[in-house]
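Backbone geometry tokens:
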Amino acid sequence: MTARTHDAFAFASLLTIAILYPPETLNLATLMTSLVANIVGTLIPDMDQASNRLWDLLPAGDHVGKIFRRIFLRHRTLSHSLLGAFLIYKVLEWGLPKLLNSNFIDVHIVFLSVMIGYGSHLIADGLTKDGIPLFFPFPLSIGFPPISSLRITTDSWVEKFLVLPCVAGYVVWLFTQNQEKLLQILRLAVK
């Protein structure tokens, strides 16, 4: 999937979870940080590519990206697996409380936002012809549906004119069907 589709999947996933499990407390700093964290989360699985947008956000990111590309061997290996998701989970669980000021930002909500973005990336890539190596280091590629000829080719007309508009339509539908819940969430943020 392209970055635009991953971003759309991540936002739709975050919005769905927020509607199903609305936060009890939320402030503007947490809301804004969570939106950014969700997009960062969707970029993390592709950190094995030096051209990832994540590296553009960091000082000396081009050089760091080249190092990470060598660590991960090739695209869609460790970072697209359950093992990679577990490692990222543990790194974030340890690092986010040290990085964010919990007096102003709800670290738990930000953590969930990153992981929702990460998970949505894996689901979206699982819809592609290549699938994902969910059980890396075992060379089994998993995709949805199981028959690869029924899956999407990245950057194809199906992704551009069917998948992306469907995700956008889903987001619009979520907004129209859950306006009151979303307004309650926003009210929490601007108290």
